[in-house]
Description:
Layout lengths: L28 E7 L18 H9 L1 E3 L2 E2 L4 H10 L25 H7 L3 E7 L17 E5 L11 E4 L2 E4 L4 H15 L5 E6 L11 H4 L19 H27 L6 E7 L21 H4 E2 L1 E4 L8 E3 L3 E2 L3 H9 L16 H4 L11 E5 L2 E5 L3 E3 L5 E3 L15 H24 L5 E3 L6 E5 L4 E2 L4 E2 L9 E2 L7 E8 L3 E10 L7 E7 L2 E7 L26 E10 L2 E9 L9 E9 L3
Parallel strand pairs: 1-8, 1-9, 2-12, 3-13, 4-5, 4-8, 18-23
Antiparallel strand pairs: 2-11, 3-10, 5-6, 6-7, 9-11, 14-15, 15-16, 16-17, 19-29, 20-23, 21-22, 23-28, 24-27, 24-29, 25-26, 25-28
Helix pairs in contact: 4-6
Amino acid sequence: MVRVxxxxxxxxxxxxxxxxxxxxxxxxxxxxxxxxxxxxxxVGFNGNTxxxxxNLDRIARQGVRLDRFYVSPVCSPTRxxxxxxxxxVRSGVDGTSAGQERLDxxxxxxxxxxNAAGYATGAFxxxxxxxxxxxxxxxxxxxxxxxxxxxxxxxxxxxMLDHNGTWVQGEGYLPDDITTKALAFMExxxxxxxxxxxxxxxxxxxxxxxxxxxxxLDGDTLAQRHRQPEREDLEHTRAALAMTAxxxxxxxxxxxxxxxxxxxxxxxxxxxxxxxxxxxxxxxxMKGRKGSTDEGGVRVPFVVQWPGSVEAGQTIDQIAAAIDIxxxxxxxxxxxxxxxxxxxxxxxxxxxxxxxxxxxxxRLVPSHWxxxxxxxxxRFRLDHQGALFDMxxxxxxxxxxxxxxxxxxxxxxxxxxxxxxxxxxxxTAREARPYTVGHPQHEWTHLPARxxxxxxxxxxxxxxxxxxxxxxxVSVEDSIWWExxxxxxxxxxxxxxxxxxxxSEGAEVEVRFGKHRLAGIVAPFHDPPLRGMERDRTPRIxxxxxxxxxxxxxxMTLSAGRGVLxxxxxxxxxxxxxDFKMLSxxxxxx
Length: 590
């Protein structure tokens, strides 16, 4: 059975340490800004002259730039490592959809630790580590959540968003909207320490960005190009840089707010991306992009400021990684753990940031995705095919120098084997995880098409599940289902989100779980067009979206336990049953 989880209940001993000169009456605030699919080379402070990023450059000027900072090749593993301080392969995050993005429930998160220490905690944006409680951010230590828990979203202009488990209408361009909500949270909690996690959805596709940021850029005049310029789509690059310009503007709003509230010196601001660029564009000549375990797929921009405590204007070349963020922030704000919690794979970078001796100069950083592992030392990278590159002399990974450095090669091959053995052990030990329904301390559970399976002719609107829906439901023999676990018996109001053309309305559908049944009629007709293409700057690879209509089927009792939760059609009066987006369950009070 899935263990019901609220807040992390391990005993914490919280100790305020003198790791920096700081106001001893209050622990510092923390703001973590995480961008989506932004490469190392997409920012001004890393030498990109195609774009101006004055606010990000301001953080680099006022703080520290870690020039060799590494994350996972894709989104959800990086987020898991940031939250836990542990390799994503330990935490159940093996993919980016179909439930593989969920963070195991035995893992604690950075938010839980800060929340237990008295911090107000808020997350605003793309979560991508689980949707249904107890995987939802409000069950992982965040007091407030506003955004989308999925891996990508199909509309960036006033889309439907999740606010503490309830679907609401967004307000304006999504990065602007989540920044506004984060600023409101900061203002509401300005009298106490706060942790704000701001994972932006950009520059991940679809490439949607307001004219004010897109129009000033001209793709044909970009001076800096990909190392193989014939592979570059200049309009895609233009859109990605425009989205970065918008991020920079929103970061400026945050920095200006801190200054206006005189909280600059009481706030640690940390900025990074979750993986390499989502296209072939300037990236310092590095090999690889998003999804690759080569340097360009995993090296990202990273800057941190804490005026008065971290010396301004530093550039640090020591290799570091996403697994280091949690132990670093805990040490900087003065939190230590003295219990038997799961050990970190990362190390605290606080000594590096504070100008103190750092005891991990010879460390190794592995990168892993889809059976490919590479190992980075301070000087060398062993790629997933066994080639060795001197990253100081050859940062573009052009020349295999394995024959010249046999001892280095042997050491990195040994480290590679050790990490691959860890991956195999973790995968072998992994238990099946059903989708959770009816957490007793959370009102809502949403089961989207993204997480479901379907039979017969029913098909996804796109091969990338995250913001997809089901279509082509033409037979009463077909069905949609989830491997589910109801966490606590109760009564639930069940709502179905559908579209159906005129003439096909009126199908009777039924939700089933064990002995429990609930039927309803899909009506009235609701047939909005697909949208998204009208705002896309370049053709998307994800599903187009449309406005689905909620239909309350009624109240259904569910008994605790595991089983198949299915959506079936009993009748089909027209040409089709419906297009389907989501089932929602609202627990009724006892």
